[in-house]
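Exercise 3.2. Students should predict the tertiary structure of the chain below and write it as structure tokens, then compare their answer with the key that follows.

Predict this chain's 3D structure.
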Amino acid sequence: MDGARVYKNKNALFIYIRCCLDACLICLVVNMCGIIGYIGNDNGIEVVFNGLIRLEYRGYDSVGIGFKDKKGKIKAVKSVGRIQRSDVAPGMPNLEEKIKENGRFKFDSQIVIGHTRWATHGAPSERNAHPHVSMSGRFAIVHNGIIENYYTLKKELVDKGYKFSSETDSEVIAHLIDYFYNGDFVEAVRKTLTKLDGAYSFLVISEVDDFIIGAKKGSPLCVGIGNDEIIISSDEMPFVDRTKKVIYLNDNELIIAYFNGNYDVKSFEGIDIEKEIKGVPYDIEAITKAGYKHFMLKEIHEQPTTVKNAFISRVDHLDTMVRDNFPNLPRNINRVIYLGCGTSLYAGMVGMYITERYAHVPSRSEYASEFIYRDPVIFRNDVCIALSQSGETADTKEALKIVKDKGAYVAGIVNTVGSQIARLAGKGMYLHAGPEIGVASTKAFTSQIIAINLFNMLLIDDDDYRQSIINEMKRLPNKIKDVFNNEDYIRDIAPMIARYKNFLYLGRDINYPVALEGALKMKEIAYIHAEGYSSGEMKHGPIALVDDNLLSVFIITGGRDIYQKTLNNLLEIKSRNGKVLVITDNVDEMRKYLGNDDYIIKVPNTIPQLTPIINIIPLQLLSYYVADHLGREIDKPRNLAKSVTVE
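Answer key:
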């Protein structure tokens, strides 16, 4: 059919084309915007500004603040790039420059919302940045997530005379609230919610009403209950310095936050809901750098403690773990399926090796992002474990829903208390690793491997096996500290390592996932092309890449059979004049085969089930120091966010 006959005007046709293009791009975009709102007696501009800085780790390319001024009018201040400097948009004023003068805030408001945006619909720009203000100027919103039916809604609103000032899907929310408003702000929001498809959370303020409304469906939203103030945010970090009292909204719930610390929580249908007030499980010190140059380096160094926290309260109470963490675990398990994305996927792959070899139970580690499209065959006695640091990863959450709906046993291994995957699973383990601010996961990965070992101990009815794992776990924190004895060496070789354009990470058996994770870290942080491979697959293609621009990184630890076969792969690289870096627990033996221009990093010996923890830490340090030498923005690498909260 002729498009000119379908659309009444060119504007509508343009909207259709633009929206189709945006929809095609959604699957390519990493999205975890941050939202925050404040209502109280202090200057909310300052509270929200500081909160936005703490939300930077989520990833963003533009930022904005919306508030009611002294006359009750809605104002919005927005900028492209960083909050405090314009790396993304050099020469353009950043948010701090726009809202401060001589170091003092130019504005004062007690009702404020803020947003860090990661571009999906529309390029990074001030007009696409949040907050979005309705055409009437009566409402302003900040939004995290995707409105899947925004094209249809946008066309309907255009037909009703609404004009859009941005390319975003989010702006439809502001205009819909304005359209439905008939003197009742809450009712206008509720009617808007009936129109929205997708995963989202948003905050909205009104020119007329002195309260903030927040709504959640699929994207995280929590509420800090302070002294005569309410702070609503994507997570607890923006308000942990002001209050440790928090409530977590579930899907299809909204909050109305008033002055003096009062609030109402309702279902989307308007039914009142009583919420349990919980405590934030960490202090403000946990989200500071504590003297380290970057959060990533701090979190790498926290691993002796975080690994210990993952097991110390559990290893002497395994029977309690079955009852409390994995109640009603099937006796005759058909399969164990680990579900994850990125780093969590690789932790699940480690689990796959442990489950099959030691528990003798068939096991798989699945890309959650692909699992959801397969219509997977799931049996009721399958055990499915969802792995996620944030507990908000959209693909993993959707995969967990699928297996849960099919009747399988589900559990979660997550770090963030109260997260969506934790609530959806209803059982499993928290990592107790504390906040992980750096985008590249480090301490969460090693804690996940501890948790996976603990879970597998429940499947293995062998006291000797269990005790051997427990004994080595207790020695592990000191062995991790031994790894840091080589940190100066890793830092010193980083400038030479940084000259390579390509990296091939090679590991065998349980350390194959470590090769994948090590390569991922180099890609994420240093922006250098790196591939992880099973060393047995090296001669099936990758060996063709050997040249002066390639560094082959080998993980050679463990039993003699694994050691010798991987060493043979290394010798094949050396025979072709390739350069290598080796992670090994047998330095003296390895020196026989390497030249002066090769590199050796020593690690302590441990049992196979825990070698991934020991072996990944020098690779984390290597990626960090290479990235630091290259001047990368390590804690907030380009194009990445801490968690992917939309598919």
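Discussion points: Confidence is low (pLDDT under 50) at residues 1-31. The two ends are 31 Å apart (CA to CA).
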